[in-house]
Amino acid sequence: MLKTLVTYYTKTGNTEKIAKSIYNAIKGNKDIVKMEEVKNLDDYDLVFIGFPIYNFEPVNNAKEFISKYAISKNIALFATMSLTAVPLNEQTKDLYNITINNCNNCCKDANLLGVFDCPGELSEVIAEKLISSNDPMLQMFGRIRNATIGFPNTKNIQDAAKFAVEIMNNK
Ligand SMILES: Cc1cc2nc3c(=O)[nH]c(=O)nc-3n(C[C@H](O)[C@H](O)[C@H](O)COP(=O)(O)O)c2cc1C
User: Fold this and answer.
1) How remote is the CA of residue 146 from the centroid of ligand 1, in Å?
2) What is the distance between the alpha carbons of residues 50 and 99, in angstroms, rounded to a whole number?
3) 80 in ligand 1 pocket by Cβ < 6 Å?
4) What is the Cα–Cα distance from 87 to 27, expressed in whole angstroms?
5) Residue to probe by mutation, ligand 1, list 56, 82, 148, most atoms within 8 Å of CB
6) 48-57, 87-96, 142-151: which range is least confident on average?
7) Is the CB of 4 under 6 A from ligand 1?
8) Does the pLDDT of residue 5 top 70, yes or no?
9) Mean per-residue pLDDT for 102-107?
């Protein structure tokens, strides 16, 4: 019988909200386990893998997790990021596309079934650190914190559930 795992890394809780929504939407035999606690994916036919975006790509430990465990596995990704909390303009649209490409590129050795992404609140502590960093791009993220408050919102959480159902139906 099909067994599904939802696994995720979260630093400030946004990705965990999406992980729980996906888990609740899935029918059948399923587990939800934090990425740090996963030993291997041998028992699973399908794995939803969630993470925050750092520097326009999956956070490092998610990239390492995917390259180590997801080889030849059926996987679907879900990511939270601050960029999409504000309407995209020409520049941020490019950054968004780069980000999604980077997510896809991490999965070359896996069977990637889909990618879901939504906005995620930038925590105040982190925003302050980013603003005082030397990297202009990180400073930019720090400054958009106010627009990110409240994400993922109810609609994002519902959309994640719909994504999970679609992946399960197409599997
Ligand atoms: C060091 C750092 C770098 C980040 N880089 C990006 C980025 O490149 N693009 C983006 O959209 N969000 C970026 N963010 C924002 C996070 O992706 C966002 O807050 C995410 O929802 C956090 O998820 P979590 O609560 O599950 O940890 C960054 C956050 C941190 C702390």
Assistant:
1) 14
2) 14
3) yes
4) 34
5) 82
6) 87-96
7) no
8) yes
9) 97
Q: Which among 53, 135, 146 is the best mutation to test ligand 1's pocket, defined by most ligand atoms within 8 Å of the CB?
A: 53
pLDDT > 70 fraction of the chain, expressed in percent and rounded: 99
pTM over 0.70: yes
DSSP states of 47-81 as a string?
EEEEEEEETTEE-HHHHHHHHHH-TT-EEEEEEEE
∠39-6-65 over CA atoms, to 5°? 45
Query: And the tokens for 75?
Result: 């996987």
- C-alpha torsion angle, residues 84, 62, 17, 165 (rounded to 10): 90
pLDDT band per the 50, 70, 90 thresholds, residue 65: very high
Q: Is the pLDDT of residue 45 over 90?
A: yes
Q: Which two three-digit tokens encode residue 39?
A: 């030993």
Which of 16, 54, 132 to mutate to test ligand 1, by most ligand atoms within 8 A of the CB atom?
A: 54
Let me know: does 53 contact 62? Beta carbons within 8 Å.
no
Ligand 1 centroid – CA 122 distance (Å)? 6
The two tokens of residue 95 are 């950054």
